[in-house]
């Protein structure tokens, strides 16, 4: 199969998986650059040995082109996902993604916010005493999003994908859609359950409806209750809260704050289940990176 045709087919596959526009855009940019590099190397067929050899050594190509290690890591990740798709779709015979490596050191500078900073973000959005309009409801929705993120350490994508049917009030659990498209139940604090119940009650009263399992827990418009917010919209909700408190704190750092706090008393297996890391080793490595250096 021609390389450009295979890339177009893979991007179509990603759209069918309901990937966010931001994710699709990044994959498209990375794979268009891959297609250009393959053209320059005069490699046309993804089933050829030349393509396999090129893919395995793609990191060298990117470094020679002057890309920074952070960009190289992302582009290699995009290539690995593409090769895996080619194998699953039976376009190539062998899934050789494990042979495609990124060797450059990569360290994202992370600043864990203090308890005072997290508290300020937590209470940034105020709950209106009365809500009679969509505009008055928005800060209330945003408040629930930020507080759920801080209470649980959920990722933006996990919050974005939440449906009413994923919230088990009796068992005090949430069902999270993981990357492998399976669901993982996590336990909630009693206060978090009460906050979600309060959010749901006031939202249903304002818009005059009964919650159904398929309703997005956080939606952007009354007429789009079956359509979840985009990841970018959730990110902006967090950004406005942190910027409003004159803080430079990312959503991922709020997640790491909760991870560090829970790691003090909880068993690693319980943390692994809750935070959804690929392996215990990966989670422990992340914790080591986050802990203050003495």
From TrEMBL:
What keywords are annotated for this sequence in UniProt? Answer: DNA integration, DNA recombination, DNA-binding
Q: Which Pfam families match?
A: Phage_int_SAM_1, Phage_integrase
Q: Which residues form the Tyr recombinase domain?
A: 108-294
Task: Keyword check for DNA-binding, yes or no.
Answer: yes
| Entry annotated with the keyword DNA-binding | yes
Record-annotated Core-binding (CB) domain positions: 1-87
**What InterPro entries does UniProt report for this protein, alphabetically?**
CB, DNA_brk_join_enz, Integrase-like_cat_sf, Integrase_catalytic, Integrase_recombinase_N, Integrase_SAM-like_N, Tyrosine_recombinase_XerCD
Q: Which region is the signal sequence?
A: none
Similarity remark: Belongs to the 'phage' integrase family.
Name the chain's protein: Tyrosine-type recombinase/integrase
Q: Which organism is it from?
A: Savagea faecisuis
